[in-house]
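stage 2 :: seqdesign
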């Protein structure tokens, strides 16, 4: 039975220590899945708090300015905030999808070629669903089609 994974000292990933697998530890075993579940849940919580702050800010700052320029500035500010929240809403959906993959024990493998995505890539982008090679190829194809 593998020993408990060790955390690397003096390094932090958004408040999380980088995962260091124990010798002989199975890729995406229970401890590793727990590590990514914790990261994803924290990220989701942070995003949801940001949404709450935006709602509060918009309620507090909403004013009926008599000056059209002031009103337009406020509307533009709110519009930018709402676009950012919409991107975050989509990200929350992706986080939920990723958490379901973890629960289904299908997390951590490339959706295209099936190889391990890798711990460091997943710590950098926990919602990654492609290995770095497949992602690079997809980006090259996207650029070629976009021309």
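stage 2 :: out
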């Amino acid at each position: 039975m593998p020993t408990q994974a060790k955390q690397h000292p003096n390094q932090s990933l958004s408040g999380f220590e980088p995962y260091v697998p124990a010798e002989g530890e199975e890729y995406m075993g229970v401890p590793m899945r727990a590590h990514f579940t914790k990261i994803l849940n924290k990220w989701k919580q942070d995003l949801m708090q940001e949404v709450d702050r935006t709602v509060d800010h918009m309620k507090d700052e909403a004013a009926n300015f008599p000056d059209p320029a002031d009103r337009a500035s406020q509307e533009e500010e709110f519009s930018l905030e709402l676009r950012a929240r919409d991107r975050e809403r989509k990200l929350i959906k992706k986080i939920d999808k990723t958490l379901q993959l973890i629960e289904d024990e299908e997390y951590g493998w490339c959706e295209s070629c099936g190889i391990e995505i890798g711990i460091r890539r997943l710590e950098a982008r926990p919602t990654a669903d492609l290995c770095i090679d497949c992602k690079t190829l997809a980006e090259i194809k996207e650029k070629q089609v976009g021309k």
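stage 3 :: structure notes
- The chain has one domain: 6-146.
- The CA atoms of residues 62 and 75 lie 9 Å apart.
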